[in-house]
Amino acid sequence: MAINQINRLFKNLLLQSHKTVQARSLFTSPLNLRDVVDRKEMLRSMPAIDEGTHGEKSIDIDSSITKRDIFPTIDTPNKLFNGIPFKDLPIFNIRVTRNNTILCLSDAKGTPKLIRSCGVEGFKNTKKGTNIAAQATAITAGTKALDQGYKIVRVRVRGLGPGRMAAIKGLQMSGLDIVSITDSTRVSWTGPRPRKQRKL
């Protein structure tokens, strides 16, 4: 009703000033505003939740290694790598959890020389547990190890988490020569006693 009255007023004004100004039609249709009533439709229209950047699912470390070269032999501790016996090579210990990845470079006796973690690298909260954080931390740790003069290293991985392979790849990308990868994840063969059965 009110729209029709406004429309008539404008038409009268336009008719009176028709001699000087050319008349144009005036559209007063309401805007089609979308009112979301259905919750499912609203959730569908929202952008997807960002779960961080997805990295590689699996990588091939070195396809040239044959099956018989994988496991150590009796002569492995005395085997020379660039003039250094295997038993005297520095060790990169990688401690992997769901929430963080910690890298520690130590000499053959176990004295720590360099410690780096995803939190120190600048990743906070849940981002510390991602494979991208582990790879970035490993690249930084590897570069610092090269600056200290370590070129050939052994790698020892402990724990389960998204940063296992990413940390090894980061060390490889930094330019370190990785001689061996050892998985020293602790396994409990006799776990804790289970809960008693519920009585219903």
From TrEMBL:
GO process terms (BP): translation
Keyword Ribosomal protein set for record: yes
InterPro entries: Ribosomal_uS11, Ribosomal_uS11_sf
Keywords per UniProt: Ribonucleoprotein, Ribosomal protein
GO molecular function: structural constituent of ribosome
The UniProt record lists the keyword Ribosomal protein: yes
Cellular component terms (Gene Ontology): ribonucleoprotein complex; ribosome
Pfam hit, one: Ribosomal_S11
UniProt family annotation: Belongs to the universal ribosomal protein uS11 family.
PANTHER family reported for this sequence: 40S RIBOSOMAL PROTEIN S14/30S RIBOSOMAL PROTEIN S11 (PTHR11759)
Listed name of the protein: 28S ribosomal protein S11, mitochondrial
